[in-house]
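Structural prep section.
Before we set up the soaks we want a predicted structure of the protein with 5-hydroxymethyl-3,4-dihydroxypiperidine in place, mainly to decide which crystallisation condition to try first. Input record follows.
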Amino acid sequence: MTRSFPPDFLWGAATSAYQIEGSLDADGRGRSVWEEFAARPGAVEGGGDGSWACDSYRRWREDVDLIDELGLGAYRFSVSWSRVVPDGHGPVESRGLDHYERFVDALLDRGVEPVLTLNHWDMPQALMADGGWVGRRSVDAFAHYADAVAARLGDRVTWWVTQNEPWIISLLGYQLGLHAPGVADLGASVAAGHHVLLGHGAAADAIHAHAPAARTGCALSLFPCDPATESVADAAAADGSDGYVNRWYLDPLAGRGYPDDMRAHYERALGRSLDDVIRPGDTEAIGGRQDWIGVNYYTRRVMAAGPIDAAHPFPWRVVGPSGDVPRTDEGWEIVPDSLRDLLLRLHRDYPGTPLMITENGGVFGDGPTHDGRVHDVRRTDLLLGHLRAVHQAIEAGAPVAGYLHWSLLDNFEWSLGYRPRFGLVHVDYPTGRRTVKDSGHVYAGIARTGALPDHLPEIAPFG
Ligand code: IFM
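Run finished without errors. Recording the C-alpha cells verbatim:
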C-alpha cells in the first residue's frame, strides 16, 4: 500500500546557524554566548566549537543546490541573532541581513518555502550583562532583533519560528549548565524560560506588524512521558514530567497561562512564589500569537516516581524503557508510535492549531564506504517509521502541515561536538565535502512524489 500525503504537505529539512555556518567573525557578527561557553575547558566534547562547522556561511549556494537536488519544498534555517544585532541592543548590522536576504531569495527562486527561526540559541554575548534570558530586558532585545529581521524579510517569509525549544534553553542553558550560557540554577531556569516565552509573544507582534499574513510559532521539544509501570505513583510521575517538559510551554502559548500543578512544583522546590517573575499581563503577552505548533520530536521519556533530593527537585525520574529496544547510536529509544500519539494528543488538547514537525531524526555514525556512498540503513528505517506515524496521525485527523527532518547536514551538536551525525547529507569536516547519504536519496524520492511506498525502489544516486 502506498501512503499519499496531502498535496500541499511541506517536505523539508532543518538546520541552525551556529551549527552549520562557521565564519563567526564575518560581516560584523558579534560574539555569541556559544563562543564564550565553548571556550570553557570540557564544555564541548572534543573541544570544538562552531567556528568552522559546515562552512555554510560561505558555501550557502552549494547548500541551496543540495536542497534543490533533494527535491525539498521547505527548508528550516535560523538567522544568527549575533549577525543582526551584534551588541544585543544597538545598531542593526545590515551585512548580516544582506546574507539572509540573498539566501531566502535563492530558496524562493528554487520554489523552496523558507521556515525561518529567529532564536536557535546564539544569543549575543553582550546580553549576558543583564543575565541573558534571566533578565527581563532580553525580551526587548529579542523584539528589536525580530523587528529588524521582519522589516527586511517579512514580505517574503511566511513561516516563522520565534524560539527553538524553550524547555531545552531553560533546562540545559540555565538549570543544568550543560549548554550556553552555562548557568546551573533552578530559579534562573524558570525566569529564563518565562522570558523566552515573552520573547515569543513580542517577536510575533513585531513580525505581524510587518507581515500580517505571517505564521508564527515556537518549535517545542516535546517528549511524551510514559509511566514505567502501572502503579499510581508512576502515573503521577509521568503526568508531573509532562507538566515540566510539555504543558509548561504548550499551555501559555495557547493562551491558558501556566499549568497550576507544575507551578506548585516550582514554587515548592524554590521555596517562594513565582509572582515576581510571572507578572500581571504576562499571560496575555504570551498567548494568542501562535499560528501553529512546531513539534521537535526525537524520543519519549519513561518515568518513575522517586524522592526529591539535591539532584532531583521534582518527585520523578527518567528511568528509560526496560528490555532491549531499538536505539540510535546516541542511545535514544526509537519510538515512532509516540510521535503519532503526540500529534493526536496535540490535535485533541489544542484543537484547531496546525502542527508541523520542525525536527525529527537520529544519530547514526555511518560514513562513506568503498563505493563513496553512505549506506545509512538505520536512518532510512527511522525516517520511514516516523513518516508512517505522521501519515497515521493525518489519517486520524491531525492537521499536520509538514515534516522537516533534522538535519539536512551533519553538524555541530552543541556540547557533544562533531561526533553525533544527524544529517541526510554527510559532511567531511576537514574539507567541507558534502555526500548525500542513502537516507537522503530515499527522502528525495518521497519528497518528489509526496508518497510513502511500502517497498522502496533500489536506492540510486541522482541523475
Ligand atoms: O541539534 C539539535 C538542535 O539544535 C535542537 N534540537 C535537537 C537537535 C538534536 O539534538
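Observations: Residues 204 and 248 are 19 Å apart (CA to CA).
Flagged for discussion at group meeting.
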